[in-house]
Amino acid sequence: MTRRPLPPSCSLARSWPLSACPDCSKGSPMLRVENLTFAHPGQATPYVFSMVAHDGEVTAVSGASGSGKSTLLDLLAGFLTPSGGSIELDHRDLLPLPPEARPVSLLLQSESLFEHLSAARNVALGLPQGTPRAEAQRQIGEALAEVGLEGIGEQLASTLSGGQKQRVALARTLLRARPVLLLDEPFSALDDETRVAVRELVRVLTIRHSWHTILVSHHADDVEALAGRKYLLVEGLLEAV
Ligand SMILES: Nc1ncnc2c1ncn2[C@@H]1O[C@H](COP(=O)(O)OP(=O)(O)OP(=O)(O)O)[C@@H](O)[C@H]1O
User: Fold this and answer.
1) Which pTM does this prediction carry?
2) Residues 94 and 184 occupy one common structural domain
3) Number of domains the chain is built from
């Protein structure tokens, strides 16, 4: 008797066939992390991360301080090397890629800019080397306009407000044109009014540019306002909530 091959199954949904998995059957580009295993030196039980993030959607990762949220982002960015598991973007294996070749941008709470450079020079760091000057100026101007900062290109980063700095960092992300955006407490240093405005900008840019945005935040209101998909990191494992 010839055995029929089993239908491909979704290992995140465990026993479901791909066609029945609400994530796999969506058909849109997906960042997929499976059993990504890592332990810091001296850590007895390793983290084992499994999650998905879709394009045009913010995926939130919450958890207590020290639960491993930044460790997850460092693994996705390629700053740490896992001992097992996989990271795929639209079925492309990202693990062999060094950080600079990963299709990933990272935005932190603060200190994302070079303070001694102008806003425009900071944004320009997102451009490929060798971009002709006129083309670079056009793209920088467009990116600054898209984040609501027309006309501040020549201002030194050190003179910008916290919200303006995060907008400049997002403009640089626009020029990097990487499909995965990792946000590590990006609104924490902002006052309430500014945080709502920058948060809204992240929401709009994620949809407009089809980013797979992964947001690490302690703040339930940021998660509620942005996340289409939520995970909680508990005892080294990500639980969908
Ligand atoms: N380089 C390292 N060597 C050893 N242990 C580390 C290292 N980096 C982080 N850790 C430990 O790993 C655990 C997870 O740290 P991580 O920064 O990922 O947590 P987190 O959830 O992002 O915390 P927070 O919300 O406070 O930023 C912590 O116990 C931390 O002390």
Assistant:
1) 0.87
2) yes
3) 2
